[in-house]
Fold:
Amino acid sequence: MFSPHVVVSDTDFLLAMLRRSKFSQLRARELIENILVTKATLPEFTSNIDIQDPGVLGFIEKGILIYSPKPDKEGRKYTIIRAGAIDLEDPNFGPKNQVKCSIGVAEMLRREDENANVNGWHLVLDCTGVGPRHMARMPLDLHRKITKIFQDANPERVKGFHFYNAGTFFEVMMAVMKQVMKKKNQDRIRVHETMESLYKEIPMDLWPIEYLPDDYKGPSAGSIESIQAAMKKKMLDPGNRAYVLEATSDKYKIDETKRPGAATPNESFRKLNID
Structure:
């Protein structure tokens, strides 16, 4: 399926990338090469991720990254990013560990659900408590690197970016994003001034109770504490830790010494037979 410079042989990984690419072999090849090239050029973010490292696990323990425990009717899940909850005085909560946590959890959830990277995700950026220092923790060059990872080398489909309670910082954030984000992703951005607006995009039963009205009596995703406890339990599972370490190891890589000429993918590779 690949040229000799692409070192990858894991069937589950190949199937996951084909599903993500709607079984287009060309798109799957482009995605895999993007992932491996990014891994080679930005290893400090993408390689040898230990989901039990305190700096990685901390983003779950502190409720900074909240992953929905169940999908919507179309199979999509969502992640709440609460940047305002980041402890700016603690070096463990830097952008590098945040990216590692995101990638590590995504790998772990892909192991749990093979359709996790097919149905897609919604990202909810809760800007409550975000101030100038939170913005300054990620300079433009770093923002560009991280955006490249999630735009060009992300097995998961991002269906929407939802900004909640962004206030005056939204214009600042958009000025940065327009410099690094592709047009198609910019078009997926939605701004919500109220939770009622968000409920129209993401059903109420998928939200933690902390994001629901006090008088709401219907089903929910549970408390943030319970959601994070369940996710932490998964991350502390030895099998999940070993899986993510292997998935982000040097086992899968680009060997530039074996690249045959141009790097542009083409459709002249044999058909991959999948039962």
Observations:
- The radius of gyration is 19 Å.
